[in-house]
């Protein structure tokens, strides 16, 4: 073999792309119901964007970014996450001067992080995400959480739990950081090397450490919820009231801080409890200072992201059976050169009428053509030979009922209507 796919990447082959399309279709329906518009941003950005937004104390920036110098000597980074790019585009395109709130989503956005590949976690992965700018009320937080909650349930994922927390604003977080630093200072020697550095620059990052020793040492750490200022506490109560109003169950989890520095106030995760363990399928929160930090006006923001690979894996572990639609409505078999040309013309006309059809381009025998039609799950077949050409008459064979209907070879609209009617009834 000449080469292999790079480690941590995955081909979505023709045998599994229908699963992605199934999820994407439901996402597009959900976002349309909520009045969101799609945005697409470049695969790479200037490195400074992520240093300013994601935060240089995070593992993403310190360990996981794919950063390089381009031929012009500029530092470029493959996107490790989607929010910063959307914020940059929002500012640069002038959308900041339009009516607020601005609601948008991105679908199967490629992201890149250099980390140890494992099931459900790749170096190149794809995200569905939603970003809303200009809405400060907690009902917007609840609306986005509800969207993610409804979508994950609609996709059939079992054992879902919503965990929420508030990590406050810069004002109340400053007091909390002092208390947390004092707590961590007494346990400094037991912390990992990274956390000993984090506790000075951004002590909340210690709470997000994946090392078991650090997790154990921070079990009794001060809680941000106990240090919220009046406005942040009011916002969090508003979020809880809104979730209760639409009957979305939740657990207040002080341990959720998320892994990126731009979050303020609301943070949340939707977790699937499976026999294999707990897996996060969605995470997000509010980032009221990010737009200004990236160079735009002072506007609040809130959003979430779902990894597509993780989402599909959790669906599989939940026993969700995604229907694999048939490839073809019709296969046109032919015998002889003249018949092959007639089949070619017929397929072209039927496709113009939205009939999924194909024909032989290999020179197979009729028997082999019908075997191929069966592999393509064709619902109907037409055979064209010299007799059919001379009489301008064909038989439309229905594989499911084993019946045949006669048609003129020139009655393309009638053939299409018969196929379409049966296919719609079956669906």
Primary descriptors:
single chain; alpha+beta; Rossmann fold; 2 domains; eight-stranded mixed sheet; five-stranded mixed sheet; 15 helices; 16 strands; elongated
Q: Could you characterize the architecture of this molecule?
A:
The protein has helices spanning about 15-35, 45-55, 60-65, 85-90, 140-155, 170-185, 195-200, 210-215, 230-245, 290-295, 310-315, 335-350, 365-375, 385-390, 410-425; strands at about 35-40, 45, 65-70, 75-80, 100-110, 125-135, 160-165, 250, 265-275, 275-285, 300-305, 330-335, 355-360, 380-385, 395-400, 405-410. The protein is α+β, with helices and mostly antiparallel strands and about 425 residues long. The chain folds into two domains: about 15-170 and about 230-315, Bira Bifunctional Protein, Domain 2 (BirA Bifunctional Protein, domain 2, 2-Layer Sandwich), CATH 3.30.930.10; about 330-425, Anticodon-binding domain (Rossmann fold), CATH 3.40.50.800. The protein has an eight-stranded mixed β-sheet. Strand 12, helix 12 (about 335-350) and strand 13 (about 355-360) form a beta-alpha-beta unit. The chain starts with 16 loop residues before the first helix and ends with a helix.
How do the helices and strands line up, and which of them pair or pack?
Elements: H1 17-33, E1 37-38, E2 44-46, H2 47-53, H3 59-64, E3 67-69, E4 75-78, H4 83-92, E5 102-112, E6 124-133, H5 138-154, E7 160-166, H6 170-185, H7 193-201, H8 212-217, H9 230-245, E8 251-252, E9 264-274, E10 277-286, H10 290-293, E11 301-307, H11 308-317, E12 330-334, H12 337-351, E13 357-359, H13 366-375, E14 380-384, H14 386-391, E15 393-398, E16 403-408, H15 412-426
Parallel strand pairs: 1-5, 7-8, 12-13, 12-14
Antiparallel strand pairs: 2-4, 3-4, 5-6, 6-11, 7-9, 9-10, 10-11, 14-15, 15-16
Helix pairs in contact: 5-9
């Amino acid at each position: 073999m000449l080469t292999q796919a790079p480690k941590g990447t995955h081909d979505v082959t023709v045998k599994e792309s229908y699963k992605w399309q199934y999820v994407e279709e439901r996402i597009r329906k959900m976002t349309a119901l909520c009045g969101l518009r799609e945005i697409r941003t470049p695969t790479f950005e200037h490195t400074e964007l992520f240093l300013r937004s994601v935060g240089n104390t995070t593992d993403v920036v310190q360990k996981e970014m794919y950063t390089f110098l381009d031929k012009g000597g500029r530092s470029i980074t493959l996107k490790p996450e989607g929010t910063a790019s959307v914020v940059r585009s929002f500012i640069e395109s002038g959308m900041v001067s339009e009516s607020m709130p601005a609601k948008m989503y991105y679908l199967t956005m490629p992201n890149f992080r250099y980390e140890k590949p494992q099931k459900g976690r790749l170096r190149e992965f794809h995200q569905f995400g939603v970003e809303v700018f200009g809405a400060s009320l907690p009902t917007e937080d609840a609306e986005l959480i509800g969207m993610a909650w409804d979508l994950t349930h609609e996709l059939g994922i079992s054992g879902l739990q919503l965990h929420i927390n508030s990590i406050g604003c810069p004002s109340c977080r400053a007091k909390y950081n002092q208390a947390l630093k004092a707590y961590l200072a007494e346990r400094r020697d037991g912390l990992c090397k990274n956390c000993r550095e984090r506790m000075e620059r951004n002590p909340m990052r210690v709470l997000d450490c994946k090392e078991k020793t650090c997790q154990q040492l921070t079990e009794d750490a001060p809680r941000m919820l106990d240090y919220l200022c009046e406005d942040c506490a009011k916002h969090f109560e508003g979020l809880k009231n809104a979730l209760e109003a639409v009957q979305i169950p939740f657990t207040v989890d002080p341990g959720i801080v998320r892994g990126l520095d731009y979050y303020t106030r609301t943070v949340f995760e939707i977790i699937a409890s499976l026999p294999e363990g707990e897996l996060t399928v969605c995470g997000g929160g509010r980032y009221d200072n990010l737009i200004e930090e990236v160079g735009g006006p002072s506007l609040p923001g809130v959003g979430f992201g779902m990894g597509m690979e993780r989402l599909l894996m959790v669906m599989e572990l939940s026993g969700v059976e995604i229907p694999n639609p048939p490839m073809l409505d019709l296969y046109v078999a032919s015998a002889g050169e003249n018949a092959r040309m007639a089949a070619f013309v017929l397929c072209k006309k039927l496709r113009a009428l939205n009939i999924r059809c194909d024909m032989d381009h290999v020179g197979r025998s009729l028997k082999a053509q019908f075997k191929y039609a069966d592999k393509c799950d064709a619902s109907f077949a037409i055979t064209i030979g010299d007799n059919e050409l001379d009489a301008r008459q064909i038989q439309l064979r229905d594989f499911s009922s084993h019946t045949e209907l006669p048609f003129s070879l020139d009655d393309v609209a009638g053939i299409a209507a018969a196929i379409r009617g049966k296919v719609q009834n079956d669906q």
